[in-house]
Structures are given as C-alpha cells and as structure tokens.
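re: ur question from yesterday

yeah so i grabbed the chain u mentioned. its 287 aa long if i counted rite. heres the sequnce exactly as i have it in my notes:
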Amino acid sequence: MSGSESKRIELEGGVFTIGSAAPPGYPGDGEEPREVELDPFLIDAEAVSNARFAEFVEATGHETDAERYGWSFVFAGLLPDDFPDTRGVARAPWWRQVSGADWRHPEGPQSELAESAEHPVVHVSWTDALAYCEWSAARLPSEAEWEFAARGGLAGKVFPWGDELEPGGEHRMNVWQGEFPPHNTLADGYYGTAPVGAYEPNGYGLYNATGNVWEWTADWFDAGFRVEDSRRNPGGPPRGEFRAQKGGSYLCHHSYCMRYRVAARQGNEPDSSAGNVGFRCAADPDG
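ran it thru and got these structure tokens back, copy pasting raw so excuse formatting
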C-alpha cells in the first residue's frame, strides 16, 4: 500500500456492553444491550477514502457492483436542478435510482471525484468492501468490534464522545442540519460527505465513527437474532438476507432517523450500494 493508507489502531478488546436500552433507540432494530467479550484486534482510524480505493482498483481491475449493474442510489439534493427524472424509493423519495452513478461518479454520470480524494468512497457494496479488505490483507470488522472501537472507551454513551449531540455547541460529526430533506444549514460544514479525517477522533483515535457514511460490517443482520451463549467474539446469524451496517450517515436527522449513534444498526443487501455507504477495515493482531 502507499502513503495514503489509513493508520491501523490496535485495541486490547475486553468485556463491554453492545447495544443500548436507552432512548432514542428503535425497538425494531434489535439494539437490546448484552455483555460480550472481544479478543484484541486492529481497526482503521478512518473509513477507506476514494484515493485508497482507487489504488485497489488500479492494482486489481475490480469492477464494483454499481458499475456492473449500471446504477446506484443518489440523494436527490445532490443532483443538478436540470437532472432528468429518475425513479425514487417509495418510502424514501429523496433517494433516486441514477444510471451511471458509481464510486467514480458519486452524484451521477455528470460528476467526478474532483477534490474528493480524501472523502470516503461510496457506492460500494458489501462484496466490494470485502474484496478491498482481502487485497489489503485485512477484513471487515464484526459488528461487536465496530461498536467497541466506535465507543472509544466510553461505556453506555450515545455518541463516541458522550451523550451530548453538540457539546459546547461544537459539531463532532457530519449529519443533516436544518429541516430534512428540503434545507441543510451546513452548520457542521458539509452538505454531502466530509473528509475521512474530519472532526476530532474518539478516545481510541477513530474518525467519523458516527455520521458521514454508514459502514459495512462482516456480520449478517437479523434484528431478532439472539444467541445468549455467544458472548466471546460474537458474530451475527449464520446466514441471512442482509449485512449489518453501523454509524449512520450525513443524511441522518432527528426528525426521521436518529441512527447516528454507536448502538444504532441497520441491514442492507450485500450487493446494494448508495451514496452514503462506505466501510473501514479491521485485522487480527497476528494477521
């Protein structure tokens, strides 16, 4: 890898509580808390950037799922006013199915990465993320590892830095400001994604553990899945339809989606992609 490689942080693991019983959780998401234990592991300080993903594609010729399918989901607010009508998602009409949208063209075929080299790569599926991790001698973190790292050593807090969304009036992550979806005040500095190293890191040195982009994890997702005796290095269900994502994104807003919390989670199809989904890598200490 080149000098653009993210710093990889070694964490000792240990016992902690994953999930949360405190509001404003979503009962249907399966956030119920349980105590688990993790072995030591490593995790990247930052999500994979466009620059790093470009190195991977140049070295391997990898074609993403979005490129193979010929389209991906783009937030309507990022499209030009004169952009042709596109099919929207029924329950989330701000998401538009855009032909030609992919990691190189994050806002549709008319867009380019331009000055976004250090922004997180988006329009990558779980299978794309897995391919990148394998190329870089890494892996995706388990959901438990991701949440342990995102908490930054703080137990039971809502965010990686504590319980206040904006402590002292300071913005700590990139989420929607204002009224969603018609108006973003840009109070946190960004309309779309922010650079992978934006804002202050958490107590373990991770940047943007919440907000900015949803991050893929290794686990299958099932909100009702429980294995009470799987407390050490737990994984998700043995099989499923969706893979677990963590962290929320720049489109999260308290009016409809307060999933910009360390305990929050959602599932998505492994071959799906969108303009607010990325990933970071993990590894074993002896890997």
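noticed a couple things. The chain has one domain: 16-65+109-283. also Residues 118 and 195 are 5 Å apart (CA to CA).
anyway ttyl
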